[in-house]
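Dear colleagues,

As part of the handover before I leave the project, I'm documenting each prediction I ran so the next person doesn't have to rerun anything. This entry is a single chain, and its sequence is reproduced below.
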Amino acid sequence: MKAMKVTVLGSATSTGVPVVGCECNVCRSQDRRNKRTRTSALVSVAGKNILIDTPPDLHQQALENRITRIDAVLYTHDHADHVFGLDELRIFNFLQEGVIPIYGNKKTIGRIKKIFDYIWDPAAPVGGGKPMLEAHVLKGGFKLSGIKVLPIEIFHGKQSIYGYRLGDFAYLTDCSAIPDASREALRGLKLLILGALRFRPHPTHFSFSQALEEIQRLKPERALLTHLSHCFDPEETDFFVSHQVELAYDGMVIEL
């Protein structure tokens, strides 16, 4: 298998952390791991960069991680905190002088085309330019940069969305349930990044204990939690080590 680098670009839930107006210990913390932008990840393999989601903070994330190339984008679903940074892709079009393919399920691609209709409207004013994209509806696995990409159906409340497996790495954010068939496709992972919103139950996201249960079922070599609210404090290292899990943080890099 080709060497792969996974960069956690953002690790926060939709509010970001610190939360506006909040004075809790995490939101007032000076620990850089508690400065979380909205959830996203970058997979680098064979000189190519595959982005997972385009959150509103993508501009900041690209600058902080010195990203100058995006070769493809995988979308998990159509919620604002996962797609509203899409227009930031145009700078990569300019840098690369080429079109960027984007991938997702039928609902996600349809919503993106509706929200960002000017991109596909030839009569829309260009202004400062608009992203040049090729949209693809996924129905099964395919190859990007020589690595197999497998969309994994998961549930975000009642909504069917995608997680992704790329080689021995899987990324499942905004998850509240994993169907049995999808769980089988997640065996033998070296790295799993899984969403866990908070400690209390939530109708559309795994809680901490629910995420741990899935990790115990799937048995990846290494597990990280993402899409974190301000309930989580990485300074409580002993607690998370005792549960054999780590908290993802912005700028975290994992080599596979």
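The radius of gyration is 18 Å. Residues 17 and 35 are 6 Å apart (CA to CA).

All the best with the project,
I.
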